[in-house]
Design goal:
Radius of gyration of chain A: 22 Å
Oligomer: homodimer
CATH architecture of the largest domain in chain A: Alpha-Beta Barrel
Largest sheet of chain A: 9 strands, mixed
Number of strands of chain A: 17
Strand content of chain A: 15-25%
Order of helices and strands of chain A: EHEHEHEHEHEHEHEHEHEEHEEEEHEE
Distance between the termini of chain A: 35 Å
Chain lengths: ~375, ~375
């Protein structure tokens, strides 16, 4: 079979550069190993066993997931040490039970006793034991409890003492790192995350409770972590792919972006100094993360490069997006002759996790024009 | 088999109310018939043959699609009169050819001669004839050419005279209607759309060119259309489902919204006066259409009602969204006791077309708790 070329693919489609992915994975793996902790990559970004295998090279085979469907998928591909890092509820215990019975070491997170009671009841009925990590809020204001909450010890004891449950440790996610920009600010967020995790660990251990796992992480705080005494593992995910927002917050550079959408120029609007491509709100997602700070460049609905992803003309970007239309503009006069109708462009995302979720497959290239693999993604719930 | 209930579904999932959908479809169908034109519903919103069958009841079996994949899907389900309403390019002719050879009356749109030349070449090579409608820009500033463009006649003649091509008529979409709010403004946009279409039709016909189809439409201008002399058909799609944005621009009311996401409460944050659900940026999309005008209510990432979609507490909405977490807030104190962890809510979209695209299936209810159908959607490209 003659290998497929980029130019033969139907558009829009999702292109993944193998070389850039491998380099990103190696750099983060080395960095986390140098910190003396375990890398537990978050597979919510890539949702692919092929990408996981690259991220796990040289690292223990443990991962983080954001849906039970991901847990089922990765377990079916032989990864058995998994944290499902979204608050567990009793109504999902039945779905998780077969994995536990099959010997998958699937761990859950929680931050309140009411839910723990409901889960314990169902786990006992199903005769399974569920390992639960207490979720801490270290400034993200999303899930979790504060490290100094009076409920922490109460929940720790409940998880330790209740049949059907087991206290697995602590988990936190400094998602608030995304609000900052400078290395100094990032280091401060990373330090707060570290301190809160240690404080809570100490509290549990002083009370005689077991706390084997102390799990922290986000791509920015992983990148800016200092010494990590007392931490056992770091979770991060988007570092594998990078994106324009991660470049904006200095977690990567624009040259580290591994995924993009291949799109076709479908219309020139010389009267409006713009062109249209066949990738809009669905193909690119509506993520506008780079619009947030007003300081660095806002890439609209995506940063546009040429078909080979080698060069970018004058701030070229998707300025507006409709369901299946993207309006591409640039600074100054639009170079229509270099982008004839029917030619192709590559659109790089604001947020790789969200853009990639619109596709069932990656078309994998390695710098060039040739499709070397087609890799599947596990979307949905 | 005992029928499934809402309460037994894994969350997040997409719920479609059959009764509301049918009512929306009947009202629009009646309205368009009373205007004496053909309804050619845009299936980009629903992407489902089951929904199409309801929309087409009492109307000719013709539709509009936004992807060639939709065209293939609907043709395989017996709908053979289809307009693919995104600018056609030569590289997509090979994919369309089998449909034309199978006798599907698939029509395309275009707005420039360069592209028409490339398409004609490939159509001739493949020995097919492609019917092309000229796309007009009636104020949307997206695709199309202006009705008074000097290119109009040139393109019309080229499509009429070139082997492999056939001039099918004109098509325009007043997407700019979405920027307006009052009935008076909408009527004005609808009138501009109508006038531009008539002006261009006249120009073609005066030059001796055939213009069998004059296709206009968007849900708002369909709703607010006056007399439609000279127009042959109206395309609209989101009217079937409605959404919070369509309610904001008075195309529907909040009681006409037919689709919602069923989500589970996974965490209470009494310290932050909010709760978390298991539906975030992926489950709800990141569409923020209701934030646009600053006048009417901004429903955040979705309007939240109780599990039965019967009542809404005090402006309850998804205020923030992460990949798999939605942060639900309301005005005033949060009613935690009425929404215990594990309970369910229904989240109604800003933009139905985008939110529904995150799901492969509809769970269909009819007002109550029982799942009466599971209907498939054709996503992707």
């Amino acid at each position: 079979m003659i290998p497929m070329k980029l130019s033969q693919l139907d558009t829009p489609c999702l292109v993944l550069d193998h070389g850039i992915l491998s380099r990103n994975a190696q750099i983060m793996g080395r960095h986390i190993r140098s910190l003396g902790v375990t890398l537990r990559p978050h597979m919510k970004t890539a949702k692919s066993i092929d990408v996981a295998n690259i991220a796990l090279q040289g690292n223990p085979r443990c991962i983080t997931v954001s849906t039970l469907k991901e847990a089922e998928y990765f377990a079916s591909h032989g990864i058995t040490d998994i944290i499902y890092a979204v608050s567990m509820v009793a109504s999902k215990v039945d779905r998780a039970a077969p994995l536990l019975r099959d010997g998958v070491d699937l761990k859950f997170i929680l931050n309140n006793i009411d839910s723990a009671q409901d889960i314990a009841k169902r786990a006992s009925e199903l005769k399974i034991e569920m390992t639960i990590l207490i979720e801490l809020d270290v400034g993200d204001c999303r899930g979790g409890m504060m490290a100094d909450s009076a409920e922490l010890l109460k929940l720790g004891r409940f998880l330790s003492e209740t049949p059907g449950l087991k206290l697995g440790g602590l988990l936190c996610h400094a998602g608030n790192s995304y609000h900052y920009r400078t290395t100094q600010e990032m280091q401060k967020v990373a330090a707060v995350e570290h301190d809160a995790a240690l404080f809570a660990t100490q509290k549990l251990r002083t009370a005689g409770l077991d706390c084997p796992i102390v799990s922290i992480g986000s791509t920015p705080t992983a990148k800016h972590a200092g010494t990590l005494t007392g931490i056992t593992e770091i979770r991060c995910g988007v570092y594998m792919f990078g994106d324009a927002f991660q470049a904006q917050i200095h977690s990567c550079t624009l040259r580290d972006m591994a995924v993009s959408v291949l799109a076709t120029v479908i219309c020139h609007r010389r009267d409006l100094n713009c062109m249209l491509i066949d990738a809009g709100s669905l193909a690119l997602s509506q993520d506008r993360s780079t619009a947030a700070d007003g300081l660095s460049e806002d890439v609209g609905f995506g940063l546009v490069m040429d078909e080979q992803a080698q060069s970018r003309y004058n701030g070229m970007r998707v300025a507006r997006a409709y369901q299946e239309h993207g309006i591409v503009t640039c600074d100054g006069d639009f170079p229509f002759d270099e982008y004839p109708i029917g030619s192709r462009v590559r659109v790089f995302p604001n947020h790789a996790c969200i853009m990639t979720a619109q596709y069932d497959d990656y078309q994998v290239v390695d710098g060039g024009d040739e499709i070397i693999h087609t890799w599947h993604r596990v979307n949905g719930w």
